[in-house]
Design the sequence.
């Protein structure tokens, strides 16, 4: 009975979003180039991190037309291989940026958070070249319906996707693999304001990211909820939410759907910590804009402490 209720809720929400998109009369522009921003750390987060990262980037980079890949490795572990090494070789149109520990320590106020996800995403936003910038988590890839609907977008919108969590044991991601319903562990349609999905994927025009000044860089001891906070900032600016399809999430034990863990940051009063500081305005140097970069290999740069 509960399963049937959840299924009905998912289908109703999906239908409503499809109607909204079909009736949307806002001016659209043709999107022929997209920057995709992915962030991570070479610490094997959740197990087989590099394998999940490779699988999702292979799909996204291979299916999104004219994609520019921006990869930001935050607080790199010096004595472990950097994922930027294989990324820069595997994807020709990639730009990889390493944020070392000495810069991480300038911002981090919670030692239990070794990877400041949204500070890293701000770096990616600043380094992206194209007008349309999508932030995609390292364990997420976009469904073909989403990619098709990215061909024409409105600057007045924030774009999100419905969530499909799948079982994955290293298989090559193909249409045939994704057509197997047995791999689906959990799925839901997003709410009317995208709160439930923007941590995995969010996309809008670069002018909107600049006006919002990225994610709030005062939030230095928490990861959980910073995505919602940034969404509310964009909504405060008058942007409207829109769902353009689905995304797939490769299941792993560290996922937030399995509960809160220490790497998500302080489990404090969520409303006061995250949602009551809108609007915010980062300093003009948000996203490490003032820090010089040293190129250490083709398509790889390291930020330098001032």
Sequence:
């Amino acid at each position: 009975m509960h399963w049937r209720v959840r299924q009905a809720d998912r289908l109703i929400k999906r239908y409503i979003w499809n109607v909204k998109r079909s009736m949307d009369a806002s001016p659209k522009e043709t999107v022929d180039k997209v920057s995709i921003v992915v962030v991570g750390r070479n610490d094997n987060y959740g197990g087989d991190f590099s394998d999940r990262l490779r699988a999702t980037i292979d799909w996204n980079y291979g299916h999104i037309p004219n994609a520019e890949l921006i990869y930001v490795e935050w607080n790199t572990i010096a004595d472990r291989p950097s994922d930027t090494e294989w990324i820069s070789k595997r994807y020709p149109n990639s730009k990889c940026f390493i944020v070392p520990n000495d810069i991480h320590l300038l911002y981090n106020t919670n030692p239990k958070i070794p990877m400041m996800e949204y500070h890293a995403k701000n770096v990616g936003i600043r380094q992206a070249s194209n007008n349309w910038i999508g932030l995609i988590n390292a364990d997420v890839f976009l469904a073909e319906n989403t990619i098709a609907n990215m061909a024409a977008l409105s600057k007045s919108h924030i774009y999100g996707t419905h969530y499909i969590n799948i079982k994955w044991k290293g298989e090559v991601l193909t249409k045939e693999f994704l057509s197997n319903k047995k791999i689906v562990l959990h799925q839901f349609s997003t709410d009317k304001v995208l709160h439930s999905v923007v941590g995995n994927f969010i996309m809008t025009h670069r002018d909107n990211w600049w006006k919002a000044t990225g994610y709030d860089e005062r939030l230095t001891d928490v990861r959980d909820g910073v995505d919602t906070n940034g969404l509310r900032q964009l909504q405060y600016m008058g942007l409207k939410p829109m769902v353009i399809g689905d995304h797939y999430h490769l299941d792993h034990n560290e996922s937030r759907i399995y509960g809160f863990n220490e790497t998500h940051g302080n489990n404090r009063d969520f409303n006061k910590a995250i949602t009551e500081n809108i609007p915010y305005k980062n300093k003009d140097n948000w996203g490490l804009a003032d820090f010089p970069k040293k190129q250490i290999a083709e398509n790889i740069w390291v930020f330098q402490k001032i």
Summary: The mean pLDDT is 91. Residues 190 and 210 are 25 Å apart (CA to CA). DSSP finds ten helices and 13 strands in the chain.
